[in-house]
Amino acid sequence: MKSFEMFNSLPPEVSDLYVRHYEAPSLTEGQVLAAFEETVERQVPSDFRNLTADVEHPTAVYVGKYLAHLHISSEAASQGIEFIPIEDATKKHEGFMRVLYERAVHSPYAEKYSNLIHAINNVGMFIKIPKNVRVSKPFRIVYILDRADETVLSKVVMVAEPNSSASVIEEIHGLPEADGCVFGHHSHLFAMDDSQLKHSTLQNMSHTQIYLANRIADAGRNASTMVVGSVLGGSVSKVRVDSSMHGDGATTNDLEIAFGDDEQRIDVTANLHHIGFGTQGRVIAKGVVKDKAKSIFKGIITIEKAAKNTSAYLAEHAMIMSPEARAYAIPSLEIMTDEVKATHSASVSQIDPEQVYYLMARGIPEQEARKMLALGFFEPVVSMIDLDEVRWGLRSLLEGKWGGVVTELFEEPEVTITSLFGTHYKYRYGK
Q: A GO term (biological process) for this protein (predicted)?
């Protein structure tokens, strides 16, 4: 298969700009072969049972490679909304899925690990929103890694037909007993003319697992996409996001957050591709690293010849909490026309000792002061997320990585973590 050949032949970093700055896992033959192992039927773990009782959100729950729960309301189904496993979509929409595969393999955005997922994806969902249909409740796709040495490779395809809208949340939870797992997902958003698609990823894996992510957002004329990504767990995490504005007047927003501790290695690339006239794109990435963790933020704004009257912004900022932690921010521009506005910014700085001292002088213990400064560093980006489920879920995970209760720090008393998520949404690996 072509995609598997490309996985074997491509280097971990395909861009000449970043050949000296990248992190990538060294997958063993056993980890790749584990993707072919037979799917074992399993029950949803008790901490996640509230998901099976959720009748408001269209919800899919994978335990390992087994689809343990799938729900969509009869009302949504009667509107023509599709929420089906990816293998069923391959049969039902054979022509579309074949074209999608061919484009993915020959895409300029193709990279080593996305080709692995295209070659042997073993889970995933297909979502289609019909023309003029607006879905208010987000779709939820939850992956639970509960056994050691599994390889789960997901493909999610979201299609919003003209003048429709929807939101999708993918959650990855790696339980502590699932040592050596590999999780990879390729998510592709198609926002047709005048439509809106939002996609969020909340990654909550253990430090013994590998995380691979590839997200593509394509926006048509006057369409908008929003991508939110978070990396909290995983020994090595490699993420790539490509947001393309093909249609005139298209807009996109990409918000990325990474928090590394221990010896985690995090590599996030977020690109903007302006193709149509009068498009607007924005990427804001923020990271915090402590202990011996390392993060790399990379990204490029590409503006094609026809993309006049474009506005683009790329910001990458990191805070270092410990002397042995490392962070890098590498933004780039490639502009092939005039009459555009393109801006990028980057910064990497140590936590400000004067700010820590200021808080300690007011009776706040040092570790609590450092935590408040780190969460405050993230908050301008977190507050831009307009989905309660994602905004508060992310706050909960960030706070949980330090320990404590999230609602003590933020002022939105009408919304609580428990009301949104029940009991399953907690960071499990904090010190």
A: iron-sulfur cluster assembly
